[in-house]
User: Fold these one by one.
Assistant:
Number 1:
Amino acid sequence: MDNYVELKNVTFRRDGRLIFDDISLQIPKGKITSILGPSGTGKTTLLGLITGQLSPEFGDVMVDGLSVPNLSRQALFELRKKLSLLFQSGALFTDMSVFENVAFALREHTNLPEHMIRDLVLLRLENVGLRGAGQLMPSQLSGGMARRVALARSIILDPELIMYDEPFTGQDPVSKGVLVTLIRSLNADLSLTSVLVSHDVEEALSISDQVYVLSHGQVIASGTPQQLRDSEDKELKQFLFGLPDGPVSFHFPAKPLVEEVLV
Amino acid sequence: MKPSKIMIHHYLLNAVRRMGINALDVCAGFGRASWFLVQSLTWGKGFKAPFSRLVFQVYQQGVLSLPIILVAGLFVGMVLALQGYHILVGYGSQEAVGQMVALSILREFGPVVSALLFAGRAGSALTAEIGLMKTTEQLSAMEIMGVDPLKRIMAPRLWGGIICLPLLNLMFCVLGIYGGALVAVDMLGIYEGSYWANMQGSVEFYDDIVKGVIKSLVFALVVTWIAIFHGWNAHPTSQGISTATTATVVQASLAILALDFVLTAVMLGGF
């Protein structure tokens, strides 16, 4: 299978804390790959390694055949024109309208005439159902609308790889359903490679071709959604089905309650 | 218990180690800031879009700083004239008050006070703005879209500051000299002809005006550099932005005062 992204034996530390311990994974071209795992396992950090905002201590990160940690600053910015990331917060430019946010990359990277920029922006806004909201400012949008504007902005240059960082967090059921449909249809219509980082298990499994589950700096499981559902691994089952008891403790390590409170 | 020789030895070694780590941190920080400055001094391709961003920064940093600069200049000039008159009148040289006001403002008060006010008004605003952009991931979003924030965000702000402060300094000086005239001529009754003629006879274009503008240019580069670097380097939290903004004002103010001494000494040939 042809891979768009490959992590090879990556070790990464932040402030001395080991986030990834010699992990390897492959993201195939044209598919939706989900990276799942409990909060704090470094899922967003993984996206930082793919985009070159972070560098691994050991190992290599290959994107479209290029070794990201070894790219020059200029080459890295060139590569990023083919990538796109939907931030958890949306990260819209607060001093620009919705229209200008979506038009931003077009204005920066192309010399298209204004009427063509207008048409392209309106088409992308139509994709996310917000063609009528072009003149609104980001402060006037709800959380779900902001996420959809950010999605329109992230696909304006027809990227080859799109990464979604916790796209379903804080969304109401309607927005969640709309986002699931959008991610699926964009991947099919634009022939994208998609990486979905999430801890919303059901939504992620419903649209993924391949899933990796991270925990304690390691890949604890990988495969198709069905393979993961059928797995007997206790840690995986606890995470997938949200069980309170299992190998992953709910409590942060501490002294026994009796000792701490009553003595 | 008396500390043993080994304990003292360990304590001293630790102290030396800490000093070494701190020194390395300072060097690394200075290296990062220098790299940041070099990257921010140039901007990307094209002329039209960067020029419009520069004009916007001149408005943000320069035009919006005008009220505080003009009012401060007026009052500094008025106070200088008042103090100068009361000192000079003891020697019967009160006619020289115009010369004193002009030289003090052009050589020192103009460049230094306008830079201090610029650091407080525009510098802190730059740090807060960039820090907030970092906190809300706008700078990261730009990077991911293949747009270098150092060229897109930092460069116009840096050049905006370099253009604005020398102009603000000149306006400060004009208002300061006018404020001095208001007090000396209109309030204290000094003959208007001597106020302006003494000034005209003693102020040298290169030694007083150009050297003041050169000081102002250096202050502009340093203040804007400190401001945008602290914004870029801020911890992405509300307290991080607050700390970065305070650091900008404190470090920029101290840098202005220290550099003023160095530049004055060099210009007067003291070294």
Number 2:
Amino acid sequence: MRAKPSDDVAFRIGTGAFGVLLIGLVAAIGLVLLKQSMPSIQRFGVDFWHTTTWDPVAGVFGALPFIWGTLYSSLLALLISTPIAIGIAVFISELCPRPLRQPLVFLTELLAAIPSIVYGLWSIFVLVPAVRAFERSLPEVLQRLPLFTGPPLGLGMLSAGLVLAIMVLPFTSSVAREVLKSVPASQREAAYALGATRFEAIRAALYYARTGIVGAVMLGFGRALGETMAVTMVIGNSVRISPSLFAPQYTMAAVIANEFTEAADDLHLSALVEVGLLLFIITLIVNSLSRLLIWTMNRSAAVLSPADEPVEAVR
Amino acid sequence: MNAAAARKTWSSLFAAFCAASVLLALVPLAGVLLYVIVQGVRSIDLGFFLHMPAPVGESGGGMANAVVGTVIVTGLAALMAVPIGIFSGIYMSEYAGTRLSAAIRFAADTLNGVPSIVVGLFAYIVAVMPFGRFSALAGGFALGTMMIPIIGRTTEELLLLVPGAIREGALALGATRARAVFGVMLPAALPGIVTGIVLALARIAGETAPLLFTSFNNRFFTTDLRQPISSLTVQVFTYAISPYEDWHRQAWAGALVLVAIVLSCSLLARFATRRLQRMARG
């Protein structure tokens, strides 16, 4: 039987419709959140973003403490995880013996597979007591610094940053590894030919891959911003803005998780949805930017070197 | 001479730092897994799967309702996500150059990055508010939303891996595009796609945040899709933040089950993909 052109059209429309559904779903998330947060947007306007009072009883809502907590914990996580993630990426793609490579990739990616709730449970019983012990043992002099003020509860920003760092690590390191892989072998060969040590050659490769590495770090940032359960369980859930690593604080995701089912009136509900909308917009921007950077990197690398693999013999 | 020695030292130090990073990452991995296994094995027994949650103060009890709830909610999610994911994946790979396919890919990546708690909010507004009650269906909708982009992108990538010659062969024999895709390409990519679905299910079964205010929780056994339903993750959360020793034990047992699901699926997928790669090569 001869194929009719109309069959292809039907196929295209049929499968395309599901794709359009997918696009519609993303648009719907934005629109639905926007609509539902209208009461709060109309009531508080821009004040919502920069005031610090969150009082469901009085019906006054300012989300700054949550925005602060989300940014603080995520940046802290990046600060801890970025050097380690790059170290892992370099080790796996450049230094480790070939038979070790796949198992190590598998193990680091397993870190991403463990459910958030399991990290949370482990943190409550293992990480938080450890952090508490560390906080207790800190010398008196240091405890006067704004960074370390407050009682040694264990629950607080430091625990949140640590558990987030662990959870973000596999994402950053696997993208950084991919990015390093796309650096043309000629770059390293040139460095070795000039008499570079291994470190200098890798540094050149990292420099070449900097756009993609920044993209990888931002991807981790996007993950950290939206992480909910583990952070909710260890950050202490206290509405405040403090520079201290020891202070219990709050994040945007955590306040939604904690208060949403108990929100009694529409304004409270609407305010929580607006926090969600804000989180949606921030992660959207961060993730898009990250993908753009990684894409730019891969593209420029592909143009310069049509699919070459790093040469083993050089090492 | 001295400078060269310094450079060599730097190089070794850097290599040592990289190796240490890997070890540093493996410490929490081993820590979490070992701790969950030790604590979980101590708390788990057959009753965990057969009994209902015990009231505070009474020891024993299990999470039979939560185990069934997790199966139901993830099953619902798969029902929603598998068709949408696979068909949009087909479109993305078949019409890879088009503007629509780029838009779908962008939407899928965006959806993949939406925080799970935000998906929960969305599902609450769409699937809970209009009906005035939490339900298993709403939970399935939330998890399904998260699952779609994973399956869509996996399908796309695997279809693109199918050798072009196979597809062209089918087309040259006069098959329609639909025939070529469903009759030849999809079967070739199927093992990989199934692996992807299994991995997606494992990941989705471990989600808590989207369920907090969609399927909510239920102390009783139910299979009614219009009622709130318990799930392992939400139950573990409830127990973990409670002050009771017995409930903590239950939480560890629940965490062990979750980790076992994830581990076995990951290992399965790893062996499956290895076999696939070998087949592709041979």
Number 3:
Amino acid sequence: MYDTLWVRITRATLIGIGLALAIIFFLFPMYWITLASFKTKPEILSSIPLHLFQFTPNLDNYRSILGLTTGETEAGTPGEYLGRLLNSIIIAGGSTVLAVFFGTLTAYAMARFRIPGKSDIMFYILSSRMLPPVVIIIPVFLMFTQLGLKGTHLGLTLLYTTVNLPFVVWMMKGFFDEIPHEYEDAAMLDGYPRIQAFFRVTLPNAWPGIAATAVFCIIVAWNEYAFAFILNSEPYAQTVPSFIASKSQTSAGINWGIIAAMSTLFVLPVLVFTFLVRNHLLRGVTFGAVRR
Amino acid sequence: MARVTVEKLTKKFGDVVAVRDLDLQVEDREFMVFLGPSGCGKTTTLRCISGLERPEGGTIRIGDTVVNNLSPAVRDIAMVFQFYALYPHMSAGDNIAFPLHARRMPGNEVQRRVNEVARVLRIEHLLQRRPRQLSGGEQQRVALGRAMVRRPKVFLMDEPLTNLDAKLRSEMRAELKRLQKDLNATTVYVTHDQVEAMSMGDRIGVMKQGGIEQIGTPDEVYNHPASLFVAGFVGSPAMNFVPAEYRDGAEPSLFLADGAFALPVDDRWATAIRERATGNTFTFGIRSEDIALYTEPGQDRIPSEVYVMEPLGDVNLFDLKLGEQIIKAKTLPNFRLRIGDRVWLQPDHDKMHLFDAQTERAIF
């Protein structure tokens, strides 16, 4: 605070340059793939990288994946991509709602009640995340085939719910631990049964945590590829990641333009959603980092 | 309003017994204070009465109803918490109205009641604000308002003044006491602060290790403590304690501080000692204001020396050396001595206390 003006300006400039470099570093892949989606095939494969203003952007790739061209293209039949996008929304959205709902209730019970063997149960819940997905992919495949869940929306939704549930339980338990139980005590003495005390008092104060948790769940389910590729390869309930992979190889080689356009559109919803809840998100992930 | 009766209350947390076989009756409209150090079970007892904790044994009655199996919501009691527990997502007014909504009271009636309570507590101008925009004292008032608004049978207060600064605390003390009398509200108040207990309670229940040591009016607890613990816990500065040994005979006497001084004992006390004592060893107790100081020797005066004098304005507080021990004595502010001065002290015979060294119960 005793620094001279010049020292302060220099420091601010250095910090600004550092941040700018970091942003360029992290956002460059996004920039490049978005750019590619507006290029023609020769432009993409050009030996000199073509940056913005070095080529004429065209929307052919988007027309083709959104089914605005007539007849079948390399991106599939008209509207095929939109169908997969809808599948992704149903499956990622559904699994997030289910995981957050059940996980939040479990976490509340774990945070508030005396449960015999609680720490063992919490560890058991966590341990289900310790296996890498490839290890269980074959058993899950066999199970889903037997149960008729293979290639359905319900199947992947349940699977992603299972994957996200431990995460939600652990995250939300942390949030509930931070919310003083006196709020519920007060609400119960004010004449509300515990379940109402939970919904009227605890839950409104847990929203930042729920929002943060939900964002992470959606991202996991939205981006998941391995299970989606193995279990849902038929058009009916195929999600976007496995669809993009299936469309990458064409008779004329890899169609980078189509892949880039699909990927760009695919990232957009998560980007917008995260942006909308960013304040909650920040409060959510730093919640509990500071002791009252 | 109603009386609260607790019989043989026992509450355990795992292997830890928080409250053991506690018996208690709070009369209708009475201001009862539970006083004790932290961990003595006073808050647990309060939470059992409220229904937030389920006791392992015993009966709790509010009025004539046994409430053991009733949920907190239907016991018709209100509680004020140490950290106020105002709902952060609601305005102060909504906080106060919250218990009324649980009873599905019509909107205009809710509004009328909230305004009435706000007027009594002088918080009308704060009703629109969120709790985090209120000072500690204001939050305290809103919390009180939320408790008062539905006119419950019993008020429970868990250290409600602990988080206020000293000046506000003494103001709120008087105000709470007045409020309790105006509302005619049966109140159970938990505190570890003996000044709060003495100044507010109609009766005080001094608690230690999950049990009640003594229940009585502030006067009884202060002037006739039933045990060494009560004598030491109530009063500031704490009561002076000196080890004593009793010798019977033609002239029964108490020998204080390893026999350095002999204190003659009259018949009434000798009888009490013979009847109640388990042995010959005792703890002799005397409060600082019950010791007279003299600058010259005389009958039954114990010689001593000034260790420190603290002039407090309204009184002077002396630390006096009695053998290896320090005795505290209060005098008028015009009685002044210097460190190292000789002084003779004489305990007031009617204000002396004697506690059995084994049982720690009062002999007289």
Number 4:
Amino acid sequence: MADTKNPRRVGRCSLPLPSLSSKSGRPSARAMLTAWICGIVFGGLALEMAGASNVFAYDDYDRECHQPYAGGSNYFYPYYTNDGLNPPGTLYQSSFDAARLDWNNTPTPVWFVSAVQPNWAFGAKFLGLNGKAGLTQYTCGGSGGAMNTAHVWENRTYMDGDSVFHKQAVASHEIGHLLGLGHSYYTAIMGYNDGSFNGTLSDDWCGINHIYPNSLYSPQCGY
Amino acid sequence: MRAYWQHRFIDVRWLSLLLVLLAGGLLGFAALKLVRGADGSTGVHVTDSRITFPSVPRLAEASDAIVVAVLKGERKESVFEPAAQDSQHGDTRVDVVRQFDPIRAIKGDRGPGSIEVRWTASGHYELSPGNFDDEQYDPLSLKVGQTYVLFLVKANDPATAPYWGLAGEPGIAELRNDDLYFKTTAGYRGELAQHGVSLGRAEAPAAFDVNIDMVAAAAR
């Protein structure tokens, strides 16, 4: 039988330290079983902590990666590099420009700063027939875990044949991901879109003002 | 001598305990990795945006072609996509290429003979040199010999010949007694559940519980 008088505990898992061993000094079957279960739990928790995200009306995928760039006390200034060469001579560049301006004009502290940052780009490429209109990739290797690399892609596989109107909708949506928003349950550029609009709506602004609290803008969301 | 071996024996037991703990951790890690899908190999975080349709009329409108066809077989094909600015750092993806024998065209001109339809099963996407993420997509499990209704778009990708692919989700349905039973990915169904949308008789919302005549009417 295992001696369980003084197990050291982490959460509900008893760590298999010597107090769990039998009198003979070797671990008991129970200790082995506990170790196995705890190992599974801790292994799982480690991954959960690495990729955890809370779910709101507007999901926040950006919990472990801090805001891309904060250059002022009242405003939030993410970098903006329109990768017009990728692809060259297409309508994606103007779509991203329009989407960026739309975000700048929202009642939120977001204001994109034009900067030549090779690791910070908006563009379009062929991502394949994966059922996805766009993809946003980023890394959190900056100071204090800040976002230091980000690419916002439209999937040319689907979007090349689509309208400029819809290209801008996808650009606005993916920029929302870049800012830390997930998919909304509501009618919004981050949520349900019947194809009649291609810019941000109030639910999108609420999400931003929730993630980046600012005295000038209140979320004013009733949910 | 006996004490020495007894001591070694105890050490071995403790070592085995440590190994069991590590194995458990790896198993837990692997299990969740399997559930979540493999991404972020180099710490790259990814969010993507699924193309979905709220109803059959909207799906039909977005489709370049709608075809009733029998699945004959499938193969996997690796595709390299050179980067526009730096061909050293292109992307690689694996497509499932499925061959269908059409038996009825409901919308569009899909050309003569059999038709090949692609669905991307995985992608290796470069973010920057040394930074990438590997995405695994649900390949949709289909049965050879089964009749399907395909909602297709035509893609013109310079890395391959022009090809047909599913318009989005839902984009393919089994046809049984003139009724459609849509096949969708676990990710799509998960998003529906998250939004409180329940499924109909198959793997799509009840709005997609239709028959082939209703599809034909929507495509007109």
